[in-house]
Structure formats: C-alpha cells, structure tokens
Fold each of these.
Amino acid sequence: MRGHPDGRSVARGGTRTSPSENGSTVMADQPTIVLVHGFWGGAAHWAKVVVELHRRGHDRLHAVENPLTSLADDAERTRKMVRQVDGPVLLVGHSYGGAVITEAGDLPNVTGLVYVAAFAPDAGESPGQLSQEHPPAAFDAIAPDSDGYLWIRQDAFRESFAQDLDADEALVMAVTQKAPLGSTFGDAVTAPAWRAKPSWYQVSTQDRMIHPDNERRMAARMSPRETVELDASHASLASRPREICDLIDRAVSATS
C-alpha cells in the first residue's frame, strides 16, 4: 500500500519492477499511456510530456490525433487506438480531451483516467453546457469562421490559452492551432467512464479557457484518487510537464 495525500491508501497490487536504461524504475506490467489532446491543439501539444515520460522509462506511449469534428468521431478514433493496445491502458485527456476519454474510457482494458485541466462531463452534459455554468475568462477570444470552425484569435492566443509559455512557443501554438467544429461544443457524453474507472485530476488555477472553479467542481464530483492544483494556464501540459508527469506516474503506479 502507499499513502495518499488525503489520508487514503491505494493498493499497488502485485507490481513487478525493473531498472530502465536511465536508472529510473519501470513497472513490468505498467499500462500503455494514451494521450488525448483537446480543442485548438493536436497530438504535438503533448511534446514535453512525451519526452519527460520517455525519460522516466515509459516506453509504451501513444498520442491520438483526433479530428475534432464531433464527440462521437473523436471518441471512436480514440477507441480504435485503445483497441490496438495489447494490455491495460491509462487514458490521459487535456481540455476537451477529457470529454473524449470520459466517452471512450468504457473499454475493458482502460484501467484509469487522468484529466489535465479538462472537461469531465456527466451523462447528458456537453463542454458547452459546462462552460455556460462558469464562463471562462477568454470566452470573447473565440470566434467562428464561415465554415463553422471555432478559432482563438491569434493576437489573443497567448493571453487566453498559454500565458505562462514564452512568446515564441505560444506563437507556434496560435499559428498551428487545430480548430474544432463549433457543433462539437454541444455534443453530450452518454455514459461517463469516470463513474466506473479510477480517475485523477489536475486543476490549473490560472486557466482562462475552462474556469478553475468549474475544474474543481468537475473534479470533486468524480471523487478522484487525487486532485492536484497547479499555478498554471490552460496549457499546463506544456508549461508544467514535470508535474503532469508526476501525476501520470502516480496513476500508473495505482493501476499497474
């Protein structure tokens, strides 16, 4: 057993460990980590997390590239990747990617869910509905184009999405952003996987895309194994990758 910050204990089970090439300890039966991006980003938003996880000895990593055309499309793309994995899977979702892992995490080989400044809808809830309850500070920076895709204005991207990244990194994110279809905001979750699977949640206290109080509320109702608050923007996966990987590591340990 290992101690938990809130006083609970989490069983480690029959975990076998072996040393990796870089000297860290790797669990022989650890799950494959599948990373799921959110709106206005792609799989490359996980770049720093991928490098840090690999440095720590996690060699079973995948990052889904979702189309952001509907929750059903994105959940099915994620399920297809999970089905390709022979063995247990830990799903990690950022932003809207939290809604995706909530919808797609019902597969039997998914052993846990990690939410990174993410939506965690309940049954019948959509990201848009949740955002209306606690409007984000950067709501006015989002605008649709003539084809129905939603964009964050490039001149407002850094202050809205990634104010704790340097200007060059935020510029690249702004220019390469992947816009979702606006209708995706209204797509509701059917059966939330967090009601059946263990979960972990990271709150960004300086988030301007999802209100921090909304993140806290979503986290509290799922009774996660652990909630971590970071003094970070919405882009915590890029600005605080070590702390995000610490949380993922603890989820890996608990689900191995």
Amino acid sequence: MPEPVTPDVRDRPVRVAIVGTGAIAREAHLPAYRALGGEVDVVAAFDIDEASCRAFCADGSVPYAYTDLGKMLAEQRPDLVSVCTPPAVHREQTTAALAAGAWVWCEKPPCRSLEEYAAMEAAEGGEGGPYASIVFQHRFGSGADRVRALIARGAVGRPLVAHCQTTWYRGTDYYQVPWRGNWAAEGGGPTMGHGIHQMDLLLDLLGPWSQVRAMTGRLVHDVETEDVSTALVRFASGAMATVVNSVVSPQEMSRIRIDCERATIELTHLYQHSDDDWRITPAPGVALEELAAWRETGENVPSSHLAQLRPLVADLRAGRRPRASGADGRTSLELAAALYKSAFTDSTVKAGEIGPGDPFHAAMNGGATGRAL
C-alpha cells in the first residue's frame, strides 16, 4: 500500500505530472495548472508518442518528457498525476500512479466498467490518500454550488420532475480516431463519453437514483457503440427524470431542468456554464425575491477544470478525500452501467443490482460481441 502524501507537501508546490499529451491535456489540464501559479509545479509529462510528448513539454515549458510511465513515476515522484489518455488505459495508469504514492485526477469516463473502477478504488491508500478523483467539472462552479444549496435547504421545495439533455453533434471525422466508437477501447458511446457530464451534475443535485429504464440506438454512425441513448430514471427521493444523450443533433445543447414544488431550475449551455446560464422561475404565488438572491452574492465562478482543481489541490495538501472520488466518483458510472443493462436486456434495472458476477459489471455491453445493441 502506498504511503500517504508526506507532510512537506503543505509547504511547497505540488509536483504534477501529466499522462497523455493530447488535446484535453493541452487545452484544459495544463492551463488549469498554470492558473494556480506557484501552488503547483508541472515537472513532467508522459506519452507513448515521443514526438507529441516532446512538443507538449516544449510548448508548455514542462521540464521532462517520458515515454515510460514507470520510469517517470520513479524518477519524478509526483504528488499529483493527471490522466488524460483514452479510457482503455485509465485503470492501468491510475493504479500505477496510486501505487507510486501519487494522487490522481483522471479524465472522464473514469474507466470502461464498474469492475475496472473497483480496481482503481482498491489501489487507493488508506486515511490521507492517495486518492483518485474523476474529472467531473460540471458539478463545480458557483452556479452549481448555489443551486445545490437551494435544493438541500428546501428553498425551492421538493424536486419532482427533471430533464437531463446532452444533445451534441459529431460527424464521421470524429470517429476516425481509432479508439472511438468501439466497446473495447472506449467502453461506450455518448452515454459514457459525452452525456456522463450532465448525468453527473444531475446526480450531484438530486442524489441517489433507484431505478432505470432505457433504450439505445445506432441511428447514423457506422460504429459498434450507440450514438443515441434515452432513459427514464426514478430517484430515491421519488423524483423522476428523462435523460437523453446524442451525438446526432445539429443544434447542440447541454441542459438540465428540475421542476420543484416552489420553482423550476434550468441550466442551458454547451461545454461550460456560469451563473448567467442558470434560471429560476418561481411557482405561482411564490415571490421571486425569495429566490433571486441566490446569484447576487459572491463571485461568478464558471464550471471548469480549474474550478475542480482548486479544491482538489487543497484536499491533497490536507490529506482528505476529494469530491468525485471513491463512491462519489462511481455514481455516474453506475448510472451508465444500469442504462446499458436496461437497454440490452429490455428490463428495468434497480440501483445496486450490478455487482461482481454480473456481465454488465465487467463491461458496459455485458460482453456482447461486435455491434450488438
């Protein structure tokens, strides 16, 4: 079992290594680390593509480039590792980093199955870490924080009906990347790779779900996985929701709507949201003034990798479990697994029923071959 982070990390910059040097590392992770200034020190990067890794390091002023992950972990001894690679290697790379004593910040989807996620959880340290947190940046930011607080304290009444929509568009060129669109490499289609962000935010706001009934389809793209999924979800609270995930929708939108007893809460955006993207409509007879103050105090902090990274670094320094890790990081993957099982088996799936021994615990398609849906 790896040793927890040493106390001196509280008094020095957090040493960071980035695994995978593609677009998400360049456009999201490295800029987020740079925004923290002296709080962190990005010391190294790893990629199996040496040219890509060296270019990333040269462009980003990262001192050391590696094509051997084990060597990088041993020589640089990072405190925190960003995993920015395709889903098929998330488990392997996350567990390697944890074994080396580093905390992990792993891109979504966290891995290809609940079985792989269990292996990642088992590789975490004891009290104090190291822990593996998943990139679910849409649940972070001031708007999500304030709406979550409104719901939690009962200001908008009991949540009743919700809609969760990730309707995006991806052309055939998107699937020219070899690992996209097949079960073995990606683990699933837009349910896993796109809609999981909004699904995670919905779960973060409404709490545990109790049952799912779903359908998936391959309506446009010549790939193994779905390009559309729909689901009906009942929550433990009694609230009911529809979930739609698509990559065939020309008018792209990410949307959550929650009808509560005293107000309707709406969020409409695409890849990032701020306070201005949320709207609250009071029910008849409810004074708007009671609900308007939610966005009038405090800083307007957009959802972003940086919004999640700031508390993650603070948690690392304090040796406490971060949000979107452990059981909290598994919730969205569990919902995705239930959605797929329901679609493949034409049945209602209840929370907690997919465990070791269930084929949908080992793979999102339940081990079906080829293009079956």
Amino acid sequence: MASVQTTTSDAPHVVVLGAGVIGLSSAYVLSERYPTHRFTIVARDLPEESDLTNQAWASPWAGADWSPIGDYEEKKYKRELITFNKLWDMIPSGLVRILPSRICYTDPLDDAHIWYKDLVRDFRVLKPEEVPAGALTGVAFNTVSLNPQLYLPWLKGESDKRGVNFVRKKVYSIGEAAEIAGSKGVVINATALGARSLIGVEDKAVYPIRGQTILAYAPDCQEFLSYPLGLSSIPTGEATYMIPRPAPPGHVLIGGTYQEDSWDLSINFDTARNIWNRCLELAPALRNPETKILGHNVGLRPARRGGARIEAEWFKLPLESEFLPTPEGEKYDFLVIHAYGFGPAGYQGSWGAAEEVAELFKEHLKL
C-alpha cells in the first residue's frame, strides 16, 4: 500500500491541471517517484460520482480498452506498450479484464505490416471461417479493457493515499495555475480540449472527435469486435466496435462514431439506430433475448493535429495577455509540462504518457 506523502519545504509544489486519465496517471507516477514533493490536482471536473455523468470532460465516456488506432508511430508505440503491460499486470485487481479480440479488415491483409502484433498477446491471423460477415480478413489477439466509471475513482483513491490534494476550480490561464503552484512550483498541463482555450497555451491544433455509443447489457458478447479506427477504409464518421467491460458483469460498450471537429453533445437517435444495426450484423451474440440497452452516451475525444503534445515549456510569469489584467511584479521563469491531445488513445497511452511526463520533470528540474 502506498504511503502518505511527507513533504519538505524546499521541494517544488506540483500542480496537475486536469483530473482526466492523463492527469491522474501523471500524478500517480510523479507522487510515487517523489514522495517528498507536494502535489495538487486542480480541475473543474473530478472523478467523483457527481461528475462522472458530466459530458464536459472526456475520460468518463471513453471506450477504455487497448485497440489499434491508426498507423505505426514510434513514440505512440512505446507509450502504448508501457500502458498495455501495466494494465495487463493489473488484471488480478479486477479493474482490468483480458479481452479476446477480433479486428476486421475490408482489404487484403499483410500481417507483416500489422504494427501492433508484438504489443498484444496471442496474435494470429483469422481463418476464413472466423472472419465476420462483411469483412474480408482479420486478426485475433488478447487485449485489455476497463470501466472508466470504476477506474477513475480508483486512480483518485491511489492519489489520496499519497497525500495528493484535490481542488475543484475552473482555471482560465496557465498563469493562474502557476500562482497556485507558487514561484518554485511546476504545472502539469493535462487539460485535454481545455488546452485550446487556456490563456497562455491557446493551442488551436486541439480539436474534438465526437463519439456516440450505446451502453448495453449483453451477456453473450464476450469478445472485442471492431474495424480499426483512424484508417482511410473506414467510412467517414463511423466506427464499429463492441467493448465488453470487466464490471458490472455483462456490460458492453457499443459504438460508434468518429466525427472530427464536431462539438455536438446531443444524442442522435438515427445514429444510435445505425450503430446498433451495424453491430448486430457484426456480432450475432447481441441477438440474445436478454440483451437490453442501458443508456446512450456522447463524449468528445480530445485530439490534436500533429499528435499528442508531451513536452516541457518555460514561461515568463506573470503572463502578458490582452485577455488578462496588466501584470505586476518582477518576471520569473516557470516550468510547465504539457500532456494533452491523445484523441481516442488516452487510456491506452496513459501510463506511458505519465512516464514521459516524469522523465521531463526529472530532466528539467535536474533531479
């Protein structure tokens, strides 16, 4: 069991801005490595019951499994390999489950170019009779899934054990976060879509990918079935997948949509009907008479053109901005470590991203 922090007066105060999966994972790793530092998570939305149904942040609505997204990128692969191995080791906890999976392709398959086959477990190419109707080829492997409604509170609980403080606060500028940290502090900017409007950051490369899903009780659906996200062969705006969760028993997330630059948080029932019919065709197990729809969800995946941003930046504070009062006091340098823009891959890259944040923290503070 983790021990509560014992802080020292000369250790920097670390403020993690954002309590989604990236912010919480970063706080976990940093507080484990630097138990004498003071840590505070500052966020408008916290992983508590009152906020877990709030559409204003992405983490509660995620698919939260590992699945292949897009093409190979070295940094992404390393980040996701670290995360996959961490989550695999967590299976005995009950928070994570082993998930048998089939990924379907509509084009001929060259398995030599499947970039993720050494990342997952038990990879193999499907036999023709195993390929679902509507697909041409496919692969099978074991992956992992979790339930954000259980996993986020667990991460918060682990932070609580380490003495991490939580502050519910809407922060409008990076300078405001720096004021909370103090002149010798550090800010971890894990604001997701908020990085677009955070004064001082204002990253216009950040954009939403709208995801609409259905939560169902489907006891016969015990495997992950999907067409891969982020490939040109997928029709614009559609993403077909089923993600059985470790708990509650029988719960399956059924999707979905992949609608770039859409900020629409309303439920479209024509879209829901289309999702359901596509998944019925792919997974006959959904036709079990016990299957029932439990709810409809819409969330905005926090993506960034050019890929996720994990880097350190030194700011001159107080900030000068037309949107802020005239700064007072002497200028000083302040360290911010950015960690945002993961799109649909936040959970599956979370532990690797937190390790990258920790390495930047060590490097720039010369610890």
Amino acid sequence: MKIEIWSDVMCPFCYIGKHHFEAALQKLPFKDEVEVEWKSFQLDPTLNPSETKNTVSYLKDRKGFSENQSVQMVNQVSKMGKGTGLDFNFDKALVTNTFPAHKLLHLSKKHGQSSEMKEALFAAHFTHGENVADTEFLVSLAEKSGIDKNEARQVLSSDQFDHEVHQDMSDAQHNGIRSVPFFILNGKYAVSGAQPVEIFENALRQTYEETVAPFKDLSNNNNSCDTDGCSI
C-alpha cells in the first residue's frame, strides 16, 4: 500500500503530522506492507534562499499578524508539539526558501533515506535553528545520513532534481492540494492536516481493507471447481 505525503520543511503541522502518522502505522499488522513517498511542497517559494527571517517577523510580514498574534500562534504550536514529544524552538527557527532542502530529500529518496532525512530536516529547522537552505549545512546532513558529500554538493549546486521538486508541486496543484501536510492513501482516500493518531489509524485500516486485503469469502466453497477437481 502506497502513501504519498506532501509537506514542507518549515511547516510545523507537517512535523507533528509525520509523528502522528508514524505512530498510527506502528499499531497496524500490515505496517511492513506500506510504502511511504515524501512529496515536495513549498509554502512560500518567493523567499530568498540567501536570506533568513525569524518566525514572528515572518508571520507579521507575510500574514499581517500583530506581534501578539504571532507570538500566541507559535506558543500554541509549541504546546501541540510537546504533546507529541517534539521541541519547537521558534525563537531559533530560520525561515528561508526550502527548495534546496527538497532537492536533498529527492537525493535521499534515491538512497532509500527519505523518511530519515525528512526527520533530520524538521529537527534542524524547528529544534536546532539550522539554515535549511545553506549548502554546507545540507551537505553535512547528507554525510551524516551516509550519502557521499560530493554527490550532495553536486546536486545542491546544479539543477539536478529541480524537475522532480517542481513535478511534486505540479502534482499537488493537479490534486487540488492547497495546504499541507496532505496524505493520499493508495490513490483512494486522503487525509489532510496533523490529524490525531486515531484518525490516521482508522484511515489506514479502511484503505488497506478496501484496496489491499484479500476478499472475504462468505460462501461454504461448495459447488465449485479448483485445480484439484470439483466439489458439491
């Protein structure tokens, strides 16, 4: 069963949603049959990758919030994060263009490390206050994940994987995705937002039962033929 997840590195609800989804998946007997594919989505592609802003200033400039509204919002999200076991340090978080981070995610996908890299990027941005558009930082993150640093630097300094990032965002638009996180479950159902663990668990079970699980045979198997002959 394939799960496609659109998210952005600087989306706090994507970080929370990832952990809720993974907690739900661990409860399911078919968890090893689930393939997760992370898809790129940019909340603000207009940001300059050479510049950073703090979260409160960004919310004031981008959303038109007052400083009190901005502080209240980040405090509320931080409280939600703590309930999931996540540390949000918005006073450290550097808001910037996440396109380079998405390129690294696609490289990580090539090496079978996309979920691990997604987690590392979330923690880097929200907990440790790292610049997720900085080439040298991203190269060091790749190296820690076992990816050759020269390959990572080549990807980040060229147009390699640019098409894949843009294609993910085009697919999001085609699917009517306007906010993240957004989960498409085996091409049949969708879940949007950082839903509670129970919602993810129920949605995954229903999707599996309807699209993957074998049919339930309600008959007594009589009056039929198989490779060994016929029964009455």
